[in-house]
């Protein structure tokens, strides 16, 4: 089961994002931190790891979902957890239009996403694009998610591996 489905407040959050934003972000952050910390403990980062979990991306979500006061309270927790886990060596940002993302969300048919609005998703999408523009902890490669969606998973991995190899310094 996907970790999102295990979140105890996810349904409430999509019904009333303002009231549940801080608690939802805190729980997601701890869940994602735990996944990465477990992988570190199991020495999974001794080899190259490709993951769809981008812990630093929590900051993008919170820039949209949290009020200024809640964000001020939340960011020290995020910073403390970031210090305890490895920094990504490379980030692949899958850029997509909000329309494409909304179609994907609706196509999944998840009960807890039925309350998600286009405006909410557009805000998150915009916040993530702004965050990625200023991200400096690792190199960022932007890929067209809509183009990748038309490819097989194998073709997508080939694109990622090619971009990753091309970004490495020549020895």
Account of the protein in words:
The chain has helices spanning 3-6, 10-15, 17-41, 58-65, 68-82, 98-108, 118-134, 145-149, 153-167; strands at residues 91-95, 140-144. It has 171 residues and is mainly α. It starts with a helix and ends with a helix.
**CATH architecture verdict:** 3-Layer(aba) Sandwich
Count of the domains: 1
Give the low-pLDDT segments: none
Q: How many individual helices?
A: 9
Helix content: 55-70%
Strand content: 5-15%
What is the end-to-end distance? Answer: 42 Å
**Looking at the structure, what is the overall shape?**
globular
Question: Can you lay out the helices and strands and say which pair or pack?
Answer:
Blueprint: H1 3-6, H2 10-15, H3 17-41, H4 58-65, H5 68-82, E1 91-95, H6 98-108, H7 118-134, E2 140-144, H8 145-149, H9 153-167
Parallel strand pairs: 1-2
Helix pairs in contact: 3-4, 3-5, 4-5, 4-7, 6-7
């Amino acid at each position: 089961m996907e970790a999102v489905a295990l979140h105890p407040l996810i349904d409430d959050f999509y019904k009333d994002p303002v009231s549940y934003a801080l608690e939802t972000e805190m729980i997601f952050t701890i869940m994602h931190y735990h996944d990465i910390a477990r992988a570190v403990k199991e020495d999974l980062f001794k080899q190259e790891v490709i993951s769809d979990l981008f812990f630093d991306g929590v900051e993008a979500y919170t820039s949209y979902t949290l009020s200024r006061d809640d964000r001020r309270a939340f960011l020290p927790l995020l910073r403390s957890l970031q210090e305890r886990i490895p920094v990504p060596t490379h980030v692949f940002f899958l850029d997509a239009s909000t329309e494409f993302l909304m179609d994907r969300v609706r196509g999944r048919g998840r009960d807890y996403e039925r309350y998600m609005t286009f405006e909410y998703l557009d805000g998150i999408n915009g916040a993530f694009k702004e965050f990625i523009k200023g991200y400096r902890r690792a190199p960022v490669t932007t890929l067209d998610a809509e183009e990748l969606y038309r490819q097989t998973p194998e073709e997508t991995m080939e694109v990622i591996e090619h971009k990753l190899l091309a970004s490495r310094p020549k020895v």
